[in-house]
Amino acid sequence: MLPSADAWNAHATRPRHFAYPAAMTDVLFLPGIIAPAKSRYAPLLAELPGVQCVLKDLEVYRDSAPPEDYSITIEIDGLDRAADEAGFDRFHLYGHSGGGAIALAYVAARPHRVLSLAVDEPAMDFTDEGNRTYGWDGFDHALTLPPTEAMREFMRLQVAAGVELPAASGPPPPWMANRPAGIQAFIAAARRYRVEPDAYRRFPAPVYFSMGSRSHPRWIGIRERLAGLFPDFTADLYHGLHHLNTSHQAQPERVAASLRRLWGQAERTNR
Hints:
Helix content: 40-55%
CATH architecture: 3-Layer(aba) Sandwich
CATH topology: Rossmann fold
Order of helices and strands: HEEHEHEHEHHHHHEHEHH
Oligomer: single chain
Radius of gyration: 17 Å
């Protein structure tokens, strides 16, 4: 169900497990393709006491170099392992960017395990239409550049025209060393993978989609496409934010409130 017009405006290589006393909600968080989950989700987790969380970094970074046979299926299987190790039979799933894309692929493949889905600007939706309209030429060009320039161009492709990219401050963190290879492997795997639209239509649980008003306009198309596929769909627009200044970092209180509403709705439905 789409919201009203007012509502639109309104790895470490292993999972990191945070347990709180008397936890009532099991949630698994997936980060984007660049920063590790721990660094991205700290502000949001501070707003979610009483929630049992697993921060699961992407399998593409499990080792120092991506697996030669890296695929989206490897990410789906890794998410299964993380949930099993945490003792999560069914759980709520949140993913940003690349992690949001993996979350979409996961609910299509394992709908019985996910109580609710929240995605913040998922990198892609794996549909044929999404692949045709994605604008891959820009990414192909970025991957021909030297690593530092390629990363800068990759960041530019995440935001709307006119958004100033953040200036580099100090030396890059050690985990940045394997990001160029990881990004290249992820893009290649994503372009090969497909989800049939009916797989999204069969997912009965509530879905929450968030995006910033200053992100690249491709996310408008992804939002509209998913809104027409998921039976129970809600979206929020975060004014002034974009893919490199995300809602869960800039407005964690608002995101936490939206997630609690989503989780409450899902748990009432599953009683």
